[in-house]
Design brief:
Sulf_transp_TsuA/YedE
């Protein structure tokens, strides 16, 4: 049942990615070059809405904190993030959009997915070596949160700050940014009107 649910949710997410244009590398590269912020606005709105709903539900007890998973912060995360961003800019795909785009039949997305799988396999094979290097050293206590989350066994960087309220506030900022951003920050910004005939 868990696998079936994962397939259904994943397929729905893929459809949503396709509907907002995230399966188009042109739209993604337009976002990264600030020529078209449509996709960035959709991403900010989605993250902000999910953050507000999740942390508000946690605050009133609808979501159990035990279901939350804090990912460890270490030096390799930042290096990996830079490599992901570079690959995203070059290919026009990130892992999620690449899979969704491959599902629409794009061969370049299929090549991207295969490359990602080869890269993941290479990382798994080399992980024992990486594990002993400074790249895997914890940053700020490893599994920590910005503010304290009641019932969560993770250190807070600012102990007196309520983590759930921070999550709601940051979500609200993301939503506000989604509505405040223009459609583009560079380029002409205007489409030329075509004659009606």
């Amino acid at each position: 049942m868990t696998i079936l649910l994962a397939i259904i949710v994943g397929a729905a997410f893929g459809v949503a990615l396709d509907r907002v244009g995230a399966t188009s590398p042109n739209l993604i590269i337009g976002m990264l070059t600030l020529r078209s912020l449509h996709l960035m606005k959709a991403i900010l709105l989605a993250i902000g809405t999910a953050s507000v709903l999740m942390f508000a539900a946690q605050l009133i007890g609808l979501v159990e904190v035990a279901h939350m998973s804090i990912k460890a912060a270490y030096a390799g995360v930042f290096l990996g993030g830079m490599l992901l961003g570079l690959g995203w800019a070059i290919s026009g795909f990130c892992p999620g959009t690449g899979l969704a785009s491959a599902a629409t039949g794009r061969w370049d997305a299929a090549v991207f997915v295969i490359g990602g799988l080869v890269g993941a396999a290479a990382y798994m094979l080399s992980y024992p070596w990486f594990e002993g290097t400074a790249i895997m050293a914890d940053i700020a206590g490893g599994k920590s949160t910005l503010g304290a989350v009641p019932g969560l066994d993770a250190p807070a960087l600012i102990p007196g700050l309520r983590g759930d309220l921070v999550g709601i506030a940051l979500g609200g900022l993301f939503i506000a940014a989604a509505f405040a951003l223009p459609e583009r920050l560079s380029g002409s910004g205007r489409r030329q009107a075509l004659p009606a005939s």
